[in-house]
Design a protein that fits this description.
With about 270 residues, the protein is an all-alpha fold. About 80% of the residues lie in helices and about 0% in strands. The model has no long low-confidence stretch (mean pLDDT about 75).
Length: about 270
């Protein structure tokens, strides 16, 4: 019993430290170095493994709630406070709590301890909460705005579409007069000037809707993370099962059978 309490305390403390490191790494990826994505990914793996172990060995609901609270509150340490962050964190906490309750209920309902079935009940909710937090952090990051202030038509596509049109029009109309009549100024190369003017017009018209582009990217990121979370979840379950078995072998966790009293009807 004492070993189990020590193991649980280590898991709770480690989960808090890992959470702080993950959010710091995610902020570095979104706000500073957009190439350093590997460490946050590994961090989320480790965090979910520790949370899964907490579900398997936790007997006290307050300890579980404290663990979930520390996982989410450390988000503010890295990203600062925003009301939007707070709203999403409350939703994420609800998802974390529901997932944890489902996993613990599954553990108590089973006669034989089946790690995969227990974790499968709770991890989808936790992964949804994490996807929401990551998408929200992305929405407010400079990375979401990279390339969004200017829309550029790929030049090869422009050439393929415009070349035949200009060739046909050039056979029938004087090109300089035609382009001027469309309200487009040009220099020496009509096609180059047309390309620049078209990009300028598109960006000029799109400025009123630029915020929706970023929102669309954030929603797309959330949906992509949800799709990726399916194989991610099974890998977490496999690794958590391996770590749990190792802790049992080392004696850090003890599994024993317990008699259960049950009411029966006799006639």
């Amino acid at each position: 019993m004492q070993k189990n309490r020590i193991t649980q305390s280590v898991i709770v403390g480690s989960t808090t430290l890992i959470s702080a490191a993950i959010w710091a790494g995610l902020k570095n990826f979104l706000f500073v170095d957009n190439s350093d994505w590997l460490w946050p990914l590994i961090g989320f793996f480790v965090l979910l493994i520790f949370l899964s172990l907490n579900w398997l060995i936790a007997k006290s609901k307050p300890i579980l709630l404290v663990t979930l609270f520390f996982i989410l509150i450390t988000f503010f340490f890295s990203f600062g406070f925003k009301w939007e962050y707070l709203a999403i964190l409350l939703v994420a906490f609800f998802l974390f709590f529901v997932g944890s309750q489902r996993a613990i209920h599954e553990k108590r309902a089973r006669v034989k301890l089946q790690t995969g079935r227990i974790l499968k009940r709770g991890l989808p909710f936790v992964l949804t909460g994490l996807a929401l937090l990551i998408a929200t952090a992305y929405y407010f990051s400079p990375l979401a705005m990279t390339g969004q202030n200017e829309i550029v038509i790929p030049r090869p596509i422009f050439d393929v579409v415009v070349d035949p049109i200009l060739k046909q029009l050039g056979d029938k109309f004087p090109m300089p007069e035609l382009i001027h009549s469309m309200g487009i100024s040009f220099g020496g190369d009509i096609k180059d000037d047309l390309y620049q003017q078209l990009n300028h017009k598109i960006n000029e018209q799109s400025q009123a809707y630029i915020q929706y582009f970023t929102l669309g990217l954030a929603i797309s990121l959330f949906l992509a993370l949800k799709a990726i979370s399916i194989p991610f979840m099974w890998l977490v379950i496999l690794l958590s099962w391996g770590v749990f078995k190792l802790l049992v072998i080392l004696g850090a966790i003890k599994v024993h059978e317990q008699a259960v009293l049950k009411e029966v009807i006799e006639v």
